[in-house]
From TrEMBL:
Keywords: Membrane, Transmembrane, Transmembrane helix. The chain crosses the membrane at residues 12-33, 39-59, 71-88, 100-121. It comes from the Bacteria. This is Uncharacterized protein.
Length: 128
């Protein structure tokens, strides 16, 4: 009997991609602690831990028939919360030198939501 593929590479890609997208939160939280902003540091570490748990919880192989957009939505919302936290930690838009138009740079980060959104984990198995 042929053995089903484990798809280990895709699993590593999902976990590595998610960890890579949130590691900056932990780094910025540690900087906040170093600067004496303990509330901001605790909030940042909390967001990081919740993001780790969410990344584990919403792994597509745990929900193989769920569309990717449903799995990505809570993860993207956590990234938005982290972005708001980062701006708040740095003193707000004015103090950080940011401008609202700079958010346009983040739009390409949403591309997986639109390009893969209607697929699900089992789609590859059906086409094999």
């Amino acid at each position: 009997m042929p053995q089903l593929p484990t798809r280990r590479g895709k699993k590593i890609g999902w976990l590595g991609g998610w960890l890579g997208s949130i590691v900056w939160i932990c780094a910025l939280a540690l900087v906040a602690f170093w600067q004496g902003k303990f509330i901001a540091g605790l909030l940042g570490l909390s967001i990081f831990i919740v993001s780790l748990i969410a990344g584990w919880w919403f792994m597509p192989w745990r929900h193989p028939t769920t569309r990717y957009w449903r799995l990505l939505l809570p993860l993207y919302l956590l990234e938005m919360v982290a972005l708001i936290w980062a701006v708040w930690t740095s003193g707000g838009w004015q103090a950080s030198g940011l401008h609202w138009s700079m958010l346009a740079v983040l739009l390409p980060l949403l591309s997986p939501f639109f390009t893969l959104g209607w697929r699900c984990w089992t789609d590859d198995e059906r086409h094999s």
